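Input chain follows. Return structure tokens only.
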Amino acid sequence: MTTFEDFNNPEGESDASLSDAHVFNERDTMAPSQFEDVIVNHDSYGIRLTDTVDGRNAASMLINKMYAWRGYAGTHQFSDDPNRITLTATDKGAVVGTLTIGIDAPIGLMADQIFKEELDAHRNNGARLCEFTKLAFDPAVRSKTSLANLFHLAVIYARDIHGCTDIVIEVNPRHRRFYERMLGFRQEGDLKTNPRVDAPAYLLRVNLEFVTQQIHKFGGTFSNESGADNSAITDRSFYPYFFSPREERGIINRLLRMDEHHA
């Protein structure tokens, strides 16, 4: 079993990758001025809302480079779409991670292309869906906390800013167990071929009420000041690496203020 001491599996691929996302070994630099809003800033590390043309273009270059490196088909751009939000993590000015949140709208989600029946079943039951796509994280940054911070901020955007109830993701079969075991996702439907990358994909879903419960229970507990061994928890859950509930409340308040400013 792959542990989180190393983000890479024996084949050299990130266990935290989505089916259409990739890790990258070369750091692409992006000036902080290319981002409009700094959400988290700890020393040299920051997570920003990519909301400029230059920022979106740079993020697209990262994803497309890794698509080519992995041999996946297609050219993928980050559009100026109000229903899609891209977060970018930087370390000392270098881009080390990115994740895009797609909010359900009348035009649907990207996952509707092959999983519309499964998604419509939840919509018909009143779910407000969102999808996480284009997750990429530099394996040279061996920090589980950095990856968890990026994912947690995406959760906050989906749940607290946009009122979503469920997250869906399309994952390659070899990454399914990570999301199921460590984050509580569940499989929806059968294995299908994702034509955007010409690769097999499962649709996974997690309810945000469950995610919230796990954050309140485990968030910020990966480091125990008493020196106790927390490996029994961190080996079966990624939530201890999320922000603590207190940190989460501060971030939510900041994002709500930012949202009011842009309104």
